[in-house]
């Protein structure tokens, strides 16, 4: 069973999300406690690759309120646990023009913190406008059908 902690709504607004992957997180002591309480943000977070390993940067996990002096740094780089073939595939795609890897959601599964990441291509301004128009049209149709019955 999944307990979703947070979504990155900005990712689907700014990017075309193409392929999704599930990654584990390497966390320090009080980080998992803060995440279990629902305190985490993916708003400005992004994924980077270094020496054949993936890291999430700028993911904000506030200090655990009952933590002591060993509390964690709020925006430290956290290592992602992915298969080697997935990391190689993602690094090859990122080297291509316009591709990036963004976190889409953070959730708990069987007590473990998991991060859903997506291979994404940036949207232009006119793409964002078209997506907004499509959403509005879909909403209007659903509203009309709801009132019709």
Short description:
By secondary structure, this protein is α+β, with helices and mostly antiparallel strands. The protein is 34% helix and 36% strand. The two termini are 35 Å apart.
What features would you highlight for this structure?
single chain, 149 residues, alpha+beta, Small Protein B, Chain: A, 7 strands, globular, SsrA-bd_prot, SsrA-bd_prot_CS, cytoplasm
Describe this protein's structure.
This protein is an alpha+beta fold and 149 residues long. The chain has a single domain (2-123), classed as Small protein B (Small Protein B, Chain: A), CATH 2.40.280. Helix content is 34%, strand content 36%. It has four helices and seven strands. It has helices at 9-14, 29-36, 84-95, 125-148, and strands at residues 2-7, 15-25, 46-50, 53-57, 78-81, 99-109, 112-122. Strands 1-6-7-2-5-4-3 form a seven-stranded antiparallel beta sheet. A hairpin with a 2-residue loop joins strand 3 (46-50) and strand 4.
CATH superfamily: Small protein B
Beta-strand residue fraction: 35-45%
Give the total of beta strands: 7
What is the fold named in CATH at topology level? Small Protein B, Chain: A
- Which residues form runs of ≥5 with pLDDT under 50? none
